[in-house]
Amino acid sequence: MKRLVVKIGSSTVTTGEGRIDHEFLRSFAEQVARLREEGWQVVVVSSGAIACGLERLGMSGKRPDNMPTLQAAASVGQGLFVTAWGDAFERCGLTSSLVLLTRRDTADRSAYLHARDTLDRLLELGIVPIVNENDTVSVEQIRFGDNDTLGALVACLIRADLTVILSDVEGLYDSNPSKDPNAQLIRRVEVIDDGITSVAGDAGTIIGSGGMVTKVKAARILGVAGIPLVICSGRRENVVVDAALGKEVGTLFPSSRKTHEITPRKLWIALGDSARGSIVVDDGAKQALQKRGSSLLVVGVSSVDGRFEVGDIVDIHDAEGHLFARGRISASRDEVELALGRSRKQLLSNRLLAEMADKPLVHRDDLVIFE
Predict the structure, then answer these.
(1) Which of 81, 207, 258, 363 has the fewest beta carbons closer than 10 A?
(2) For the chain, how many structural domains are there in total?
(3) Can you say whether the dihedral through the CA atoms of 7, 9, 12, 14 is positive or negative?
(4) How big is the CA angle at 188 (ends 182 and 190), to the nearest 5 degrees?
(5) Are both 282 and 202 inside the same structural domain?
């Protein structure tokens, strides 16, 4: 059976008043039931616990920026959230389960394997796993606040064949559709370049905490694992079924790579939320990284930015400023700056910098290429 991950945002599972939209949940459950008949195993990554809690606490409306309040709302809302989903799936003869994850679960190999094995077994048993952030205890997860990233993690975890992100808009537009009446929907994105990133915009609703930017970041992570992504409107009738059957809906981020398992180490690097700085490399270094699977040497670096230390994650840009890779660096900014512009021979002749002549600045085992 093929595997599908569907991520649903708060603005899709709730009404305009911030209440759980039970009609939507029932409609979605019916789509999952149909997909099961078509040979798909489905995992749902759903926001909504905080929204449920805020509603029950009489605090619907603008999302509070007070962390303890958000965590308290998550605690109150989690039970309401899972009960609502359980009722919707039960009406369709399906059983659902709750799986709470954080990005920390991908950093540790043992935790990663346990999470993967649990999801695999649930799918084998015919269960529909409902995955959510553990918002009650995870401060970092609420601060970055996007289940789009979590959806990408789950898709990599179970080696999904397709990921669908349901949004409150039709997909990615060439400009903000709420401000520009002439905005055009982008049907297909082959390469995530700076132009795509720039039109992604900011979070568009008061209920959720993500936005189109986080969805594009998710597409970049999924691209590393060879998993295509569709961003589409959750309110369109049978949209998930249509996306799974290959019909044109929303915006498609296809993948030219064969689907494969991305290691926990590289998955964590790909997230990039902890990037401490960035480096710019020349064309020769970019070709070596992309085409030959090489490690990055300091002689290929043109400039640096940010205050990074040994072991930090850094973004890697080409000469045009395009982000094409990310990795764990083996030297501090100060060391890299001292070495900039020097040849290998010059580095070897300098007692302070000789070690950097042949030592990888970013080893290929600690490197993620996005394209």
Answers:
(1) 258
(2) 2
(3) positive
(4) 125
(5) no
Residue range of the domain that includes 248: 2-265
Rounded Cα–Cα distance for residues 126 and 145 (Å): 30
CATH number for 319: 2.30.130.10
Report the mean per-residue pLDDT for the chain: 87
User: Is the pLDDT assigned to residue 257 strictly greater than 80?
Assistant: no
Instruction: Say if residue 142 is in the same domain as residue 37.
Output: yes
* Confidence check: pLDDT of 13 > 90: no
Locate 121 and state its tokens. 């077994």
Give me the mean pLDDT over the 281-296 stretch.
94
Last residue in a domain, options 237, 265, 293: 265
Q: What is the radius of gyration, based on Cα positions, of the chain? A: 22
Element (H, E) at 4: strand 2-8
Tokens of 321: 């400023």
Q: What is the pLDDT of residue 168?
A: 86
Q: Distance between CA atoms of 201 and 185, rounded to whole angstroms?
A: 14
Looking up residue 38, the CATH number of its domain turns out to be 3.40.1160.10
Q: Per residue in 345-364, pLDDT tens?
A: 999 999 989 999 999 999 99
Dist CA 318 CA 328 (whole Å): 17
63 C-beta neighbours (distance < 10 Å), count:
21
Domain identity same for 73 and 191: yes
Q: At CA 212, angle to CA 176 and CA 143, rounded to 5? A: 125
> Rounded to an integer, what distance in angstroms lies between the CA atom of residue 168 and that of residue 357?
51
**Residue labelled with tokens 């961003």:** 231
Cα separation, 100 vs 137, whole angstroms? 11
pLDDT (0 to 100) of residue 136: 60
Whole-number Å distance between alpha carbons of 59 and 39? 41
**Separation CA 150–CA 128 (nearest Å):** 17
Among 226, 248, 265, where does a domain finish?
265
User: What is the value of pTM for the model shown?
Assistant: 0.84
